[in-house]
Amino acid sequence: MDFAPDAAMQPYLDAAAEIAQQIAPDYSARETAGQIEPELRLLMGSRGLIAPELPTALGGRDERALTTGMLTEQIARGDLTVAYVQVIGSLVGQILSRCARPEVAARWIPRITSGQDIVAIGLSEPGNGSDAGNPSMTARADGDGWVLEGTKSMSFAMHASAAVVFARTAEDRRGHGISAFLVELDRDGVECRRAPDVGTRAVGRGLVTLQGVRVPGEHLLGRLGGGFTEVMQGFDFSRALIGLQVLGAAQVSLEETWEYTSTRIAFDRPVSSFQGVAFPLAEAETLLAAARLLCQRTLWLKDSGLPHTKEAAMCKWWAPKTAYDVIHQCLLSHGQYGYLADRPLEQRMRDVMGLQIGDGTAQIMKLVIARHSVGRAAAP
Ligand SMILES: Cc1cc2nc3c(=O)[nH]c(=O)nc-3n(C[C@H](O)[C@H](O)[C@H](O)COP(=O)(O)OP(=O)(O)OC[C@H]3O[C@@H](n4cnc5c(N)ncnc54)[C@H](O)[C@@H]3O)c2cc1C
Predict the structure, then answer these.
(1) Among 130, 145, 181, 235, which one has the highest count of C-beta atoms within 10 angstroms of its own C-beta?
(2) How far is the CA of 227 from the centre of ligand 1 (A)?
(3) Does the CB atom of residue 205 touch ligand 1 within 6 A?
């Protein structure tokens, strides 16, 4: 296992570091505007920073998943919400490359990797998030296509051109009889409403209602009734990416805090010379390093074709919790200045908090870990 960036990986990391520096000053402005600039997406796409692990033939760069993870962490150092573009691009790109008909994949994946379009993922519903295998959205066969009815809750609801949505295609046991579809969001019968979230507002999360929306038959992803089991596999990847995304925001917060505390004077000394200030930060360094290794190892398992569902669930509950706790500690270590709204710390805390929920809560991740450890029958 070697996580040192190699020669192939380095140009992506350099480009990501350059873009992170460029986007950092507008972190707060992006929240106020409620969007990520489309030109920024195009710039990231042109530098190969969106889903580079996808095959070259589909607009990717045949890079390792580990490369995507490392560059996601880099981008998140500048603006964690911009790194959502990487996470959603890789999640949906993987789903389409594995499950879409070749002509649908060829049409949509290059639009994602170039930054031209965002394709969102609609699994949760207003009445149903953790119990995702039991959706209310329905899809009924209609001639050579499908008609969808229901409401989904998703990131990028306000900015995506299309979404992968999960709908019930048969009355069956939970998880079975669920199919996935690619739905363009400019179709008749689609309505998008922004959610008044406390954070990650640039991502434009919201509710997407489909009322009698017709999609062509070739937009079915994977097998009919196999959507849940087949398509859900993509989440193992996004969980490790989210881990690195939040760690990027926490690491930069920690670096800023060492800088601040080593120059802020109290009792005639830099406050970092007090153990009460320095030791929590030293502990934070340790926790971030450990969480990063967990996420990188999960991506290494993916790159090696080895199972990593349990490890991905560990990344998803532990990295956001650790990142949130570290940023909170950083805010406190800044004293009154940490509490100012014009500093990025409080915004990062609100944004990371969203990722303690989005893509599955800590409780659901611990269920996954327990089931993979003792089997379903003996787990909660
Ligand atoms: C920032 C953000 C971005 C998001 N982006 C997307 C997106 O792009 N696409 C998408 O489809 N969804 C998205 N979501 C929705 C998200 O996936 C759900 O909110 C999440 O899965 C939890 O579902 P819920 O909100 O319905 O909570 P509920 O399922 O109602 O759960 C409420 C509480 O009960 C706990 N709980 C539920 N069941 C169990 C159980 N069996 N054992 C123990 N505890 C349990 C939960 O952990 C939670 O604490 C996003 C959410 C946020 C906040």
Answers:
(1) 181
(2) 19
(3) yes
Q: What is the pLDDT of residue 43?
A: 98
**pLDDT tens, 44-77?**
999 999 999 999 999 999 999 999 999 999 999 9
Query: Residue of the nearest CA to atom 30 in ligand 1?
Result: 129
Residue 352 CA, ligand 1 centroid: distance in Å = 15
Query: Could you write out the three-class secondary structure of the chain?
Result: CCCCCCCCCHHHHHHHHHHHHHHHHHHHHHHHHCCCCHHHHHHHHHCCCCCCCCCHHHCCCCCCHHHHHHHHHHHHHHCCCCCHHHHHHHHHHHHHHHHCCHHHHHHHHHHHHCCCCCEEEECCECCECCCCCCCCCEEEEECCEEEEEEEEEECCCCCCCEEEEEEECCCCCCCCCEEEEEEECCCCCEEEEECCCCCCHHHCCEEEEEEEEEEEHHHEECCCCEHHHHHHHHHHHHHHHHHHHHHHHHHHHHHHHHHHHHHCEECCEEHHHCHHHHHHHHHHHHHHHHHHHHHHHHHHHHHCCCCCHHHHHHHHHHHHHHHHHHHHHHHHHCHHHHHCCCCHHHHHHHHHHHCCCCCCCHHHHHHHHHHHHHCHHHCC
Pocket flag, ligand 1, residue 124 (CB < 6 Å): yes
